[in-house]
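Take a minute with the sequence and fold tokens given here and flag any structure token that looks odd. Thanks in advance.
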Amino acid sequence: MPVSASGLKDAVSKGLLREEQLTPLLSHLRDWDAAHGQQPRFDFTHLLYYLGGLIAIGAMSLFMNLGWEEFGGWGIVGLCAIYALAGLLLTNRFRDKGYLIPAGICAAFVLTLTPLAVYGFQQGMGWWPDDTVYREYHRHIKFLWIYMELATLLAGAILLFSYRFPFLMMPVAVTLWYMAMDLAELVLENGFGWQERRMFTCWFGLGITLFALWVDIRARRSLDYAFWLYLFGVLAFWGGLTAQHSDSELNKFLYFCMSVSLIGCGAVLMRKVFVVFGAIGCCLYLGHLANEVFKDSWLFPIALTFIGLGIIYLGILWQKNEQDITVSVRRFLPASIRDLLEARHG
């Protein structure tokens, strides 16, 4: 669990810690966090890190314009090589200085150059099949992107083996998501409509989520390598599920039950991404009930109010008995999940 300065001061006031121990202990914790901490925090320093990193990554991916096409295929490869070399130099320098979050962001920047470099290589070799340009990579689903995606996954494996930075999983997760859509374009193009494509995305998201759980279990005693896989896996699964169209109220209720199950999974695994998307799904279903099923009922808002207050009361009961409930629930979980939760959260 996180340790804060106010928490330690409170321990001093209660006699659990001597006052002369407080200052050296806080200094030690700050030094240790600077040397070993790779977990992102919501503070101004980390906001600057990620803002700068995402702008640099976006410049070489989402915001790539047609100006680079003027350099030709081999020119693009050369420019990517220069950028990659600079990124690796910064990665090593930041790592050696103990700035692990900026080092991980720079390594991720290098990884995001891979699809652009492969695109330039294919252009230079004359292997590019049509007049599609790189800027469409992030906008359109096409099977011809598959070589760029495979190369990115290979480069991601090499960089992860070399540096072990969790943020490298972010471009890996995005690439897996893109690959799912491009494979759907290949597999489902003959006689299949959007319904089948949505189902493909849904099942692929479920697979990525299960893969994230496996990664989480394997890396339970190290850094959090599963966060970005969970994020994009749950997003794909929930997005594919939410995009389904049905006029059946039973199917819509099952969607609501699935959303509640996501919240339950998030509570058990201590992962907020499940809770966020599950809560959005619940709100969408309740909105459907309010706008369609109980459109002219004055009792429905009143009932929802009492349901909301009841959930708040359940939250109070949970807070009072959280430890006992947690111990009871964990008894029914597989041993691997229990070990994961114990290692991550105690």
Summary: Residues 299-330 form the longest helix (32 residues). DSSP finds 14 helices and no strands in the chain.
